[in-house]
Here is the input.
Amino acid sequence: MNSLIHTHDDGSRVVKLDPDHRVLFLFKDLEQIRRQLRGEVAFRMADIDPADLLDDINTDVMTPAWVCFRHKPEDIALDAYAGLLDDSGERVFGTRALMDGGFKAIVSGQRKGTGSSRETAVQCEKWSGIEAVFASSFAPIHERNNLNLGQLLGGHELIVRLQAGEAVPLAEFTGEYDPVTRTIVEAGGLFAFAAKYEAGEATVPLPDTARRPMTIAEKIIARHLVGADAAAERFVAPGDACLVRVDGGYSHEFTTAQVHYFLQSEYGDDYGIPDASKFAVFEDHLLYADGVARMAPFAPQIQTLRDLQLEFQRHTKVRDYSAKDGVSPGICHQVAREHFVDPGDFIQATDSHTCMGGGNNALTYGVGATEYAGLIYSGFTFVQVPESIRFELVGALRPGCTAKDVILHILRTHAVAEETLDRSMEFGGPGLASLDMDERATLTNMATECTAKTGICEGDRITAQWLAARRPGQTIEQIEASFVSADEGATYDGGVHTIDLSTIEPMVAEPGDPTYGKNIEDLGEVAIDIAYGGSCTAGKERDLDFYAEVLAEALDAGARIAPGVRMFIQYGSESVRDYARAKGYVEIFERAGVTVIDPGCGACIGCGPGVSDDAEQVTVSAINRNFRGRSGPGKLYLASPLTVAASAVVGRIAAYRRGMFAAHATGVS
Here is the structure.
């Protein structure tokens, strides 16, 4: 139970900081954090300029990959904030630093918890004694994970009042939430709420929203309401609290062990799940960790995660996408969209890039291990209907530009202004038809980098043809009949934004954050050491087309990968690998000097070939995020597959232009 919450004799509940309750402020000046950890100084929010607090604290900083190799929360908390490093690369938080500090609350700036859906980021604070978290704003999945674990969340004004000695009514922390979320937080977390719901002590009534035009996300939620008459048309609106049926989902070896652990702890070793048909486990994230020197010390922990995932799969009989003979079927998001994410589906998984499935005209997004454990056990989950923002695409991309440049443009403009925050990003318009399914998947995949709830595309003949080729027994017409489209007059709280694709320029995101976008023509000279093409974002068939197009032209011009540069291309799935082989791409890659890697997440998660070795190395990568340390200690630029391949040939970050390699020939035998 949260010790900051006090109950008065009349039953009213307040939140109060006792005099001995310490508050940790996360400053941009990292030395100020160290001083607090050493007990040398205490700060008051009333005396602090919020601009001095750290913004965009991402979940990789809170719990780097190596910390996530532990599956018990109390062990994860030992190295809370292990990824927060100073300019020299030294950790700001040592082992047990947060745990031994005696802090009850923690304060930061804007967009707390960006990046991965890893619930471990919340666990590292909670199991270190933190009971209240304050920030200007929170990334949506991170916020939900906090609420599911019963953490109090608030803005800066609340910590000012608490530090002044005021007893703040609990309702001021929970009043902005729907009744179900309030009950979850005040009960101490999602499992406590689930117990109340099962005992009939908590209810979730069907929304009573009147008939209204709905967005794609709203319509899918309305069609999945628990307790609704299947024959009756239901309506929802942003903010509505709903219990919603889940069609399927998945976890991977980074997260499955926690799901299994939580289910065993809550329901016993003989727990069961009602329907395993569209649920799955994947071995993709840590497949190549054994080959990364800095991961060697964690080999036993990694093997434990693999073993526990196998145990979970055998216990539940979910789909098994384990590696066979050391080769994975592929990255979970790519394989899921190929195999079982269908139009109109509601899919949940323990990874923030689950939203990639939205390219299939489905509602898909990531959740934490606690929430996933709850939904796979019950078959339904709690949803607060999100607001939507629409991107109306017109025109077509010019040569040298891809969907990656489009989403980097959105990140630099709409996302940095928080217009996409916690909203469903809906993509449509006549320009969508100029993008194939793999390019659409790039847009929805990186909705999570926009701190959006999810991304989702309209369905069309291109969608139906792509799915029909991968769904035996389903016709194009049957698939088209399952599409969910927005109603005319639907409300978009984030607005409707027209993007003329013909105006998009080749872009990069500079090291540190995907929102640090810049047109390549404004970048200046940036020499590179590593070029990486892969990940769920950029290991699809169309991405392989892009790499091959550039490298084939380079070979024809007598050029290949520049001296001193290493280029890696990693397939997103077995089917992508087979496609590349059939097209003759493997020979092109090998002749150009590329190292080709079997399917997996690899360098994107810092666990495979293509990671940097030291802080001075520069990587240009087609992955989705470039937080410090994400893919090694070096400087990481995000770019499109075309840019990555072109840069590998010329040895510096460069946009691809046809005919550009004549002056860069390095001689090919």
Notes: The longest strand covers residues 388-394.
